[in-house]
Amino acid sequence: MRLAELSERSGVSIATIKYYLREGLLSPGRRVNATTAEYDEEHLRRLRLVRALIQVGGVPVATAREVLGHVDDDSLGRTIRLGAALWALPQGPEPDEGDPAVAAARTEVDRLLESLGWETARELAPLSPVYRSLVVAVASLHRLGHRWDAELMAPYGELMHQVARRQLDFMETHDSPTEQVELAVASAVLFEPVLRALHRLAQEEEAARRYGIE
Amino acid sequence: MRLAELSERSGVSIATIKYYLREGLLSPGRRVNATTAEYDEEHLRRLRLVRALIQVGGVPVATAREVLGHVDDDSLGRTIRLGAALWALPQGPEPDEGDPAVAAARTEVDRLLESLGWETARELAPLSPVYRSLVVAVASLHRLGHRWDAELMAPYGELMHQVARRQLDFMETHDSPTEQVELAVASAVLFEPVLRALHRLAQEEEAARRYGIE
DNA sequence: ACGCTTGGATAGTCCCGCTATCCCAGGAAG
DNA sequence: CTTCCTGGGATAGCGGGACTATCCAAGCGT
Question: Which of A199, B99, B182, B188 could form a disulfide with B160 if both were Cys (CB 3.0 to 4.6 A apart)?
Fold first, then answer.
């Protein structure tokens, strides 16, 4: 299919697709001649993923490029590829090491990982952006006066572990490693808005049950 | 305390505090005379909340203003205040009603709410931005080929309900309604990065356990 | 009295995600 | 062959968002 058709079927404007091509989020089409390029279903799939990441997941374009670069890197093993893709995602602020709230948060997070028995996560913690963003969020909660300790959070960790297990089960129903990693990334990015929405709905629901519509 | 001290203690630059004052995220200090204003602990607390919303939660300034407006509106009952504040938060794209994936997603979400017995959420669904953002995310998962139905999601809904219950329990340990709503908003915004980080760590952990470091 | 700080107002900066314009090279129609 | 039209690449511009830098006038301290 041509650019025009790709645009038609994906609902993304031609100008925007060109922009994504420039930014390296999409591989160029197969050049038929100097003025024509041909795109296939693979491009369409990828374009939908890109849109989902950017629009629904709110991932910046530069980050999406990096993530997809890892997804496509089939020189790596599955775990590393997945890890690399997930590590490229967060982009929150870095922890301010001078802040005592950060130090306290770090201690609690470490205790949490220990009590959950997440050995790999503990080993990789000093390097992991995800770990750092967790520390930042916990430090913020501390500063606002929330009690937040490992005991309190452990059940949530277990829950998220259950979620992750379900998702990897689903991932394994696909064959191609690239597709698997793509799915995992899509889950990471799109499943989170789902959880967030469920969380907020639950909060409203529970508040209404406890206090009624005053 | 003066502006300079407020800046010092919060770690936010004077210029930025002035910006927040202009934007109405912070109430002006008590004017002592034509050139001096006095701020108190309340301002500091609020400033920390604002920073957390914006930096950690990634909430746009305009949205934060709206949310805090509801938090401060003590003419409303607790449930409504909390609901209004949470409704102002999401800011995702609106669902495209022409899209069949959106229609399918809506059906599944409605079935989910029914099976969870979230009556209030069901009643308010047509109006709720949170509900709409859930539909958008689910539709996106559908388009990317994820199986997503009410049965699959119900356990996650239950989990989020548990989370919400714990948070409201904590909220009730505070007395002032404004503080309670503030806490709830902080939870909604800061607890979510925590869950997200836990989710990603769990995903890495589980992948490493299943596949090793290939 | 005079410099120094404080707070308010205004304009400017930087980044990001597009979007509009221009240009040239085919291919199709006459 | 010529002419016109379309597809694709390159470049520059736009609009919004979050700050940030500069200026200014009014006190306050010595």
Answer: A199
